[in-house]
Structure formats: C-alpha cells, structure tokens
Design brief:
418 residues, alpha+beta, 6-stranded antiparallel beta sheet, 26 strands, rod-shaped
Length: 418
C-alpha cells in the first residue's frame, strides 16, 4: 500500500490516515508516519508498508536545523541499522541544506562519523583492499550488509528495501573514512571523517546529555597529537644525528689531560692515620670536567674509597665515593665473573684552580693497594647515552601507545593487520 494522497507538500499515511507534511517536498520517496511510525512510499508503484515498533528516540531530532560545515542543515531522517552477521546496531542520519547538499552522520557507541557522497573516478574503480586517496593510505576495515530495523523521517530512496541487498565496504585512514556501497550494479562512494561530538552539540544547540555517551575507542577516532608519526620519527632522527655530531666534536676537542697519577699502599699510613693527602695539582682552562680513575688489584675481593676534592683557594670541598670489586669462579662447569678492577667517578663542572685530594680508604684483608689517576677535560660517553635516552624516551612512549591504540582500533575488524 502507498499513501492514499500525495503532493509535493504532504503524504497521507495508509494506516492511520495522518497527513504528514513533507520537508523534502518532491525529493521524499519514502517516509515514516510521524503519528503511527508506519514506513511507506510516495511512489504509487512501491507497495512497501512496514511498522516500526523499536522504542528509540533520535539523538538529533528530526526537523532540527543548525549551522554545520559552513551551511544550514536540517535533519531529515534517522535510521537504526543492524549488522546481518554480528547483529549489532548503529544509527545513521541524513541532513540537507537549502543548496541541496546532503550530509550523512553515523553513530556507534557515542562515536560519530560525518561524510558525503563523491564521484567515483577511475582510481576508485580499481580499489580492492587497500589504496591511497588524497595523500592518505586506506585499509579495508569491514565489509557487511545490514537491515534497517527502525526509521524516522523522510528518505530519498527506499532505504528499508535496499539495505539488505547493499554491500558496504568501509576503508579507514583515521580520522578519515571512505565507504563504498554496491547495490545491484550501482556503486556509490562516500568520503568523510571522525566527527567531534562537541561540534554537533554547538551546531544543533543540544545539551551533552542528548548525545550518546562515548564508550571505548571509535574506529576512526584519531590518536590525539599535534604531529604525525612520520614527523616525529624524522625529528627524532635529526636530533640523534645532531647529538652524534656534537659527541664527535667533543671527542676530538677534549684534551683528556692526565693531571695526577699515583699508587697508594695502606701500609704507608702512619699508625692511627686513616686517610691519604695527595700532592697539589692544577686544573686549568676554566670550568671543565674531571675524571677520577681508580684501579685496585682485587680478585674475589673489594676496595672502597671516600674521596674529597679540596679547592685550596676557596676551601670548597666536593665529596664522592667509589667502590671497586671483582669476583669470579666456576659454576656447573661454566666460568663466570662480575665487577671490575677499575672504577670511575666523573665530575662534570669543576672550576679551574689549585686542588688536592683527601682519600679515606677501606681495604679488605687481602688487598692494601690502589692507584688513582686524575684526568682533566675527559671525553665521557655517559652524557651521550643520557641525552640519547632523553631524546628517545617520548618517541618510544608515543610509538608503543600508538601501536596499542591501533591494536584496539582493529580489534573488531575481520581484516585486522594486528
């Protein structure tokens, strides 16, 4: 049955005889009665007659207008679709402007996409699973057919009859999405992107509670950042290259000057004396680094020293400690060892001046010796590794989190690359 009366302005419901004013005028091909929710056609040759009983209220009210995407758009219909294979539901809306521009909105778990139809060019005719479009690489996310289980408003086509026979393929390159619909021998393409719900709230003067609450991550929801992954990788590589350049420069320009060297023996300490006092030595050329290298002939043994660097002009003291230990053996027929007979202490910014050292040694029973070298303006790799870790820390976090998010994004897809 079709509407008993139809003009470009009204259509009479065949069930309840309610007169429905038509927003789309002559563009309305099917509609649901605003009184009894019967879905029918304005075409006398189409006898579709369906009663929708789903208790559902569209988040975007039918007939609501707002300034959106630079134009005034009016919501003309809302449909609830159900995946034929996995039986989950989502919502779709169609909007029209006075210039007859049509936008499509889809919503699932509080996440929105906005798209519109585009012309199929020669490149799109060749699309299979993956393709490039407008500088972005798209991958097939899902392929399905759906049935319409609810409708409200007016439609340009017979959405209810066409949906089950329409194959839909969704390709994503977050936040962008492209959709290919194939109905019989006709193919239609749509291009769009993830839609910020706050823009919808502002455009149609809604309250946040009127829109469904977000759950999980939308499959086109972007990973929020102010840069792209390729940009981050490029900047990181540039910083690493710059760091290596600086390290090479400092390696070649550092003097690595031996300022002091001496071997000490605990037996040389007078009775009751607990520390050594070194001869004075000069540190020159401004504020630079100093390396203290301690060697002790330990074997399954240890040595510990408490060192105090004294500036003889200012009286300023800098204290540091160093332990040297080396152990080895055989376990289960395999040799093992740990530690070293050499220890290093690095002080990065020591002003020039005349200095001496106070050394408070702790010897084991077997070892009473150690030697000390003081090297000025040493080329030290520790600063390089520290800087490299700092440079790589954020990119590593970003890439790991990005991978985790992409894995989540594709969790519901039959075509997941993860």
């Amino acid at each position: 049955m079709v509407g008993e009366s139809f003009s470009s302005d009204v259509a009479v419901c065949p069930e309840c005889k309610h007169v429905n004013a038509l927003q789309l005028k002559s563009l309305a091909y099917t509609l649901t009665c605003s009184k009894c929710s019967t879905y029918f056609s304005t075409d006398a040759d189409n006898e579709i007659n369906v009663k929708f009983n789903l208790p559902f209220a569209p988040a975007l009210p039918i007939g609501k207008s707002g300034t959106f995407k630079g134009e005034t758009f009016t919501v003309v219909n809302c449909s609830v679709k159900r995946h034929k294979k996995y039986a989950y539901d989502w919502r779709e809306y169609q909007l029209i402007s006075p210039s007859k521009r049509v936008l499509y909105l889809s919503e699932y778990d509080g996440h929105w996409n906005c798209f519109e139809r585009i012309q199929e060019d020669e490149a799109l005719k060749k699309v299979k699973l993956n393709f490039d479009y407008k500088g972005n690489k798209y991958n097939l996310y899902q392929r399905y057919s759906a049935k319409m289980i609810y409708g409200r408003g007016e439609y340009f086509t017979d959405m209810f009859s066409e949906s089950p026979d329409t194959q839909v393929e969704e390709f994503i390159s977050p936040p962008y999405i492209m959709i290919r619909e194939t109905y019989r021998k006709n193919t239609y393409w749509y291009y769009g992107a993830y839609q910020d719900r706050n823009e919808l709230i502002a455009a149609f003067k809604l309250t946040p509670n009127q829109l469904p609450k977000k759950e999980g991550r939308g499959y086109t929801q972007p990973f929020i950042s102010s840069f792209k992954k390729d940009t981050l990788i490029g900047v990181t590589l540039a910083l690493v290259a710059l760091l290596i350049t600086f390290q090479i420069f400092f390696a070649y320009t550092s003097k690595n000057e031996l300022i002091f060297s001496k071997r000490f023996n605990g037996n040389e300490l007078a009775q009751g004396q607990t520390f050594f006092v070194t001869e004075s030595f000069d540190l020159k050329d401004g504020t630079k680094s100093v390396l203290f290298k301690v060697d002790a002939p330990v074997a399954n043994d240890w040595f510990f020293g408490d060192f105090v660097l004294v500036n003889e002009q200012t009286g300023e003291e800098i204290e540091f400690t160093k332990e040297v230990s080396y152990y080895y053996g055989v376990d289960g027929g395999e040799s093992w060892s740990e530690g070293s007979t050499t220890g290093k202490a690095f002080l990065s910014k020591i002003p020039e001046g005349r200095y001496h050292l106070l050394i408070y040694p702790e010897f084991s029973f077997n070892n009473k010796e150690f030697s000390l070298k003081v090297i000025r303006d040493d080329w030290n790799m520790s600063n390089f590794w520290s800087a490299l870790i700092l440079i790589l820390l954020f990119p590593a976090y970003y890439l790991i989190r990005s991978y985790y998010i992409e894995e989540q994004r594709w969790a519901d897809s039959d075509y997941s690359p993860y």
